[in-house]
Amino acid sequence: MKIADIDLGSQPVLLAPMEDVTDASFRIICKECGADMVYTEFVPSDGLIRDAAKAIAKMKTSEEEAPIGIQIYGNDPDAMVKAAVMADNAPEIAGGHGCDLIDINFGCPVSKIAGRGAGSGMMREPDKMVMITKMIVEAVKKPVTVKTRLGWDDNSKIIVELAERLQDTGIKALTIHGRTRCQMYKGEADWTLIGKVKENPRMHIPIIGNGDISSPMKAKEAFERYGVDGIMVGRASFGHPWIFHEIKHCLITGEVLPPLDVRSRVELAKRHFALSLEIKGPVTGIYEMRRHLSCYFKGLPEFKETRMKLVTSTDPDEILSTLDMVAERWGDVPPIQTVGVYGI
Predict the structure, then answer these.
(1) Same domain flag for 179 and 299
(2) For the residues 60-79, what does the mean pLDDT come to?
(3) For labeling, which of 48, 157, 267, 285 is most exposed (least CB within 10 Å)?
(4) Residue 170 is part of which domain span?
(5) Catalytic residues
């Protein structure tokens, strides 16, 4: 699959952008575990044009993460265009590698975003969505892609027609989450409409499917049954970044790997922790790793006390010692099959 000149190979597996999850350290870990492409956390267009430090910091990436997309969101056309131009020039503004493409978030369902007409809130204004997309495509040099949903609710699943209109703006790929905005993350993702978009003879850009890819066999089914060009893994990677290796192995061999053993999870957690400290410093690095650390060991018996140590300690050496203790105490416990902290 190619997005413009970005060659991601056959049956690529991408890491979905997730707020408070896909920071730089997690993106690097997922790349090392086999993700073919990663994306930043959602970057608010209004924050960028106000030069908000937090928004600008989200655009800082590294060569280790490439290819990487910067994802922006908003509902004001002028602000979205200005933000896209800033993302296009991210190395000069935020430092680092910048991006290989710019992704537009028309899919986030959370109320604080969709409720004000951004993210999947745009599904209620398809004409405006198409207009904003066209304006961004014409304003930037990098390839532009879109991530969206099936529609606003069950009575307005407009994705088949909308996909054609978005393609006509000049975007280079389209990612579709198989739920409506009103579904949020409830119920099963409906991949049949994703398949219909892919089957449409007018569509010629890559179609990437997203939603409920929580195991290697589900990934395999997505490619074989619905014919998508790529798949995107989101919540199932949180606490389980090695899912990318598991999926790639299954796609190549048809085999499902056994669950990753506890000692290997400890080494991966230590690598992730080291990256977080290096990139964000000891205070923020420790604080923001808390959401990840205990999730690596979800399901271990009698783990509550150890989990509390991992999520309350402010001493890097103590955290590393606790991780070593996890390997020593639970290293011989039969491996646990996980599907990400969300259990989807």
Answers:
(1) no
(2) 96
(3) 267
(4) 7-253
(5) 108
